[in-house]
Design brief:
The structure holds two protein chains of two kinds.
Chain A (H helix, E strand, L loop, with lengths): L1 H28 L9 H13 L2 H33 L1 H14 L8 H8 L3 H25 L3 H9 L4 H36 L7 H10 L3 H26 L2 H8 L2
Helix pairs in contact in A: 2-10, 3-4, 3-6, 3-8, 3-9, 5-6, 6-8, 8-10, 8-11, 9-10
Chain B lengths: L3 E11 L16 E12 L4 E5 L6 H9 L6 E6 L2 E2 L7 E4 L11 H5 L9 H14 L15 H14 L4 E5 L7 H18 L2 E5 L3 H7 L2 E6 L4 E7 L12 H13 L7
Parallel strand pairs in B: 3-8, 3-9, 6-7, 7-8
Antiparallel strand pairs in B: 1-2, 1-4, 4-5, 9-10
Bound molecules: adenosine-5'-triphosphate and magnesium ion (MG).
Magnesium ion binds next to helix 1 of chain B.
Chain lengths: 255, 263
């Protein structure tokens, strides 16, 4: 109980402190509300955006894109990582290419993505996919290749089939590290979606921010930023919960 | 039950030590011989206890017979057949815990019972072996929630549950407290008398070997050779002190292992 209240009240105090600093900055800087809106204005703007339905629409659009790109990265990246983690031949062949592609920012892909996929949903989803794919492949490869070889000997000893080796050894063994990677990667994907939406689409939180800037509505810009932050926080908390699931608890306590 | 013949078995590891860059030192790939010309024969259903100083190659020998590792030269015949890698007929109990940490005790024990289709029957069987090693009440615990000794017992239960033809045990009793050690020793002897499985048992404990073994093998030297392979025909339960020949053999073994004053 004490721990629970501490993990809730301490962050709350921090947020309050941040808001106070925000207020004070405005008081002493002398910026006008149109240039740097104060917390109350932003909250009312959020209220307005919720009331006229735009905020919900844009949030859903952004979440949809992240989900699509992220799942695509999971379904392609994790199996590839598992194969590379077990097959040193393929790893040797593909790893340099992956390490070469990985540091290229997804934003650098924007021109090509638009050329290939045009305007609309596909280029945005593609950019999110790119941002999550390489980190997931690399972390999964590392997680699988560092599984204690004794477990594979046990598997051979108990005549586990190839499928059982995957489902009873590789997947559970890599899960703790892969879930940590998913948590980090989802953060990156959420970061990229806003940027992607500024160029290729006409919905989503990124679009809301860009559109509001063009209309010189800084309060809406900041409202969008606050919502992005809040959703990022919620996503991270959800992934953290996932990391505490029973299936991966052993990873925290073993060794 | 299996009849095991080792003929001229040798094992070399290639050494990956940092090269010595002294002038005149030859820089060729060195190999490090662990086992040399091991000739042994174990009869059907024998409990063989392998003794030897630390690092002499006991685990290596066991791994080769179980098919996890390959000999550099020589052959291993089990029931007249060359070994073909690991199988469910030769279950290995590792020196260091090899329970799967993401599975509960009963899931681990059930690993070798996957062929039993009937759910209820399988669970009964799992319970039987868990009860045998006195882990009842801990069925749904994970290995990290068990003490070191309990982990060993769970691993023992997992190995016994498969009902393999041959059981390989690499110091399975390390880390057990005295009483559990005695109890497990009795349990393994009883299991062996009852099932007549072949058991290859590596130990550091000379008394374990004398109490349990149908045959005692002593490895030693560098590279290791067979110093002694002797059949013991005393009935179970054995008491070392009541058999003058065993007392004599015990003294001999202590002498052979280089600690004559410890008797
Ligand atoms: N993979 C390996 N590569 C190189 N050398 C090895 C390898 N495994 C074992 N050795 C060497 O082989 C020798 C025998 O090792 P082994 O594990 O068989 O000893 P052991 O008799 O089981 O010892 P202990 O009683 O301490 O368990 C040791 O000197 C060790 O350094
Ligand atoms: Mg050993």
């Amino acid at each position: 109980m004490k721990i629970l209240s501490r993990s809730f009240i301490l962050p709350l105090l921090t947020f309050c402190g941040a808001i106070v600093i925000w207020e004070l900055t405005i008081c002493f800087s002398g910026w006008k509300t149109q240039v740097f809106p104060d917390p109350l204005t932003v909250v009312t703007s959020i209220g307005q955006l919720i009331a006229n339905g735009t905020l919900v629409k844009h949030t859903i659009a952004s979440l949809f894109r992240v989900t699509a790109g992220f799942y695509l990265a999971i379904f392609l990246g994790i199996p590839l990582g598992m194969v590379l983690g077990r097959n040193t031949f393929l790893l040797c062949a593909l790893n340099p290419l992956i390490q070469f592609m990985r540091p290229i920012s997804p934003l650098a892909w924007i021109p090509i993505a638009m050329l290939w996929f045009g305007i609309g949903e596909p280029p945005a989803v593609f950019l999110i996919f790119l941002s999550s794919f390489f980190p997931l492949v690399v972390s999964t490869t590392l997680a699988v290749s560092s599984i204690n070889p004794t477990y594979f000997q046990v598997a051979a000893n108990f005549n586990l089939t190839r499928w059982e080796v995957i489902s009873k050894i590789i997947v559970p063994a890599m899960l703790p590290e892969v879930i940590t990677a998913l948590r980090i990667t989802l953060g990156i994907a959420w970061l990229v979606v806003v940027a992607a939406e500024m160029i290729a689409v006409d919905s989503g939180l990124g679009y809301l921010i860009l559109d509001s800037r063009n209309a010189l509505r800084m309060d809406y810009v900041m409202a969008g930023m606050v919502v992005i932050g809040l959703i990022g926080l919620a996503l991270d908390m959800a992934m953290k919960k996932l990391g505490k699931a029973e299936a991966v608890a052993w990873g925290t306590f073993s060794q | 039950m299996s009849h095991i013949i080792l003929a001229g078995l040798s094992k070399k590891y290639s050494e990956r030590r940092k090269k010595i860059r002294d002038a005149g030192e030859q820089l060729q790939a060195q190999s490090f011989q662990v086992l040399k010309d091991i000739d042994l024969e174990f009869e059907n259903g024998e409990m063989v206890c392998i003794l030897g100083p630390s690092g002499c190659g006991k685990s290596t020998l066991l791994r080769i017979i179980a098919g996890f590792d390959q000999a550099t030269s020589g052959s291993v015949l089990i029931d007249g057949k060359q070994i073909q890698g690991p199988s469910e007929d030769h279950i290995f109990v590792y020196q260091h815990s090899a329970l799967l940490p993401w599975m509960t005790v009963s899931e681990n024990v059930g690993l070798g019972l996957r062929s039993i289709r009937e759910e209820k029957q399988r669970e009964e069987k799992i319970q039987e072996y868990i009860d045998m090693v006195e882990l009842n009440g801990f069925e749904s615990r994970y290995p990290y929630e068990l003490s070191g000794g309990m982990q060993r017992r769970a691993e023992l239960a997992r190995a016994l549950a498969v009902d393999p033809k041959t059981l390989f045990m690499d110091e399975p009793f390390t880390g057990l407290d005295f009483l559990t050690h005695m109890r497990m020793r009795e349990e393994v002897v009883m299991m062996h008398l009852y099932t007549e499985k072949s058991v290859l048992f590596v130990t550091h404990d000379i008394d374990d070997a004398l109490v349990m073994g149908d045959r005692i093998v002593i490895l030693g030297g560098r590279p290791a050779t067979v110093l002694l392979s002797r059949k013991l025909t005393y009935p179970h339960p054995r008491k070392i002190t009541s058999e003058p020949e065993l007392v004599e053999l015990r003294r001999e073994i202590f002498f052979m292992l280089g600690v004559p004053d410890a008797v």
